[in-house]
Amino acid sequence: MKHTAGITLLLLLLALNTGILFPQKLVESVAGIVGNEVIFLSEIENAVAQQLWSGDRTPIEQLRCNLFEEQLVAKLFIDQARIDSIEVSNSEVEGYLNERLNKFIARAGSEKALEEVFKKSITEIKADLRKSLKEQEIVNRVQGKIAENITVTPAEVKKFYSKIPADSLPTIPAKVEISIIQLDPPDNELNKAEARQKLLDIRSEILAGKSFSTMAILYSEDKESAKRGGEIGYLSRAELEKPYADVAFSLAKNTVSKIVETRYGFHIIQLIDRMGDLVNTRHILIRPKIKPDQEEKAISKLDSIARLIRADSLSFERAAYLFSTHKDSRINGGKLVKNDPSARTNLFTLEELDRNTYLVVRELKPGEISKPFKTEDENGNTVFRIVRLDNQIPAHVANLKEDYQALYNAALLEKRQKKFMEWIDKKIEVTYIKISEEFKSCPFSNPLWLK
């Protein structure tokens, strides 16, 4: 085993030092070696192509050097992961992989267009993305281990804040805390029945020979996927609504489903392709339509609730619990919290609110309750609300009193970055590093690479 590994390393070194050309299918061009990790030239060129496609305007030679140095740093952490037996499985990055791939497909316009951009099949693009995401997760885990005991004290936060020049302190945007009472449209079953019937009519036309893609462009109320003929890209079962996934994974290729109901409305689905645990589907979404008399009924009920609260006959919190159909907020007395597991906070910038709620909240004073209004919930369905402005923090220059947590996070990040840089310098000193001639002229930010 050692003899074989030695021969492999010798071949790589010959490729670097002498420029010997090997057949493309046998040995790739090597850009660098870090410990036991190899950086292939194709990895750098792929990264350059991706950055240029994403709109990066950095001059191409500078971009190649920057991305190569990023790879050198990443390979240091990956080499350490091998030493520490830190591993990441394919399944651990599959969700992120599908999300990233779908964003690429959406940006390109179609899978075929994406393949043309990168001159690779969708399978090859996915393999490249999987490798990149796995390596990034490995780097994150090694960094987490290096920085696991790093903390900052209040004194360190204060020192970090004092070092920031006054004219460089960021402006923190205005934020609000709000509570809501939400009502779904009354008598919505009739609206649902009408939506189902419209979708049945569309389905009948497709079964009679009309193009699913064309009908999606004409009628689907999922506007983003409608632009692509209803196509939503490769997704796993976990990434789809359960009723949608159950049907999508049971379909034969190119067949059209019966009507499926999810929290977004009603769908018909066509299976485009299945690849392992992923399906690529088209769908047409129709949502129930609210009638004027239903809107009037909901507004009237909310108006009555608001008058009771203003008259102190009923607390906002009790009213939210009794009447609100917004499940996440009603158990908190109507307090609206961000629907983001990584940032469960009740502070919102106005821009983070939906447009109709934004227009109402910006006119309120703290403690004031709005008039009833119509808007859309996080699923895009029509709902009716009253809002109370609980607290308002004006836009201001960052300061220790109001923005301690944000400054704490920034100080902690700076301390972690300093630790990583120290670790990188020490790791370079004890790691075998070889850089090909074409990258030796790069203006590396860390001169130790060319030790």
Task: Describe the protein in words.
With 451 residues, this protein is of the alpha+beta class. The protein has three domains: 2-85 and 415-450, no CATH class; 175-187 and 291-397, Chitinase A, domain 3, CATH 3.10.50.40; 188-286, Chitinase A, domain 3 (Roll). Helix content is 49%, strand content 16%. It is built from 16 helices and 13 strands. It has helices at residues 2-18, 41-53, 60-84, 90-108, 111-118, 122-146, 154-163, 188-207, 212-219, 223-226, 242-248, 292-310, 316-323, 327-330, 355-361, 404-429, and strands at residues 30-34, 37-40, 171-172, 175-183, 231-236, 260-262, 265-275, 278-286, 348-349, 373-376, 382-393, 396-397, 433-435. The strands form four sheets. The chain has a four-stranded antiparallel sheet, with helices on both faces. A four-stranded antiparallel sheet has the order 5-8-7-6, sandwiched between helices. Helix 3 packs across helix 6 and helix 4 crosses helix 6 (122-146). It is flat and about 75 Å long. Mean pLDDT is 89; it is low at 1-26.
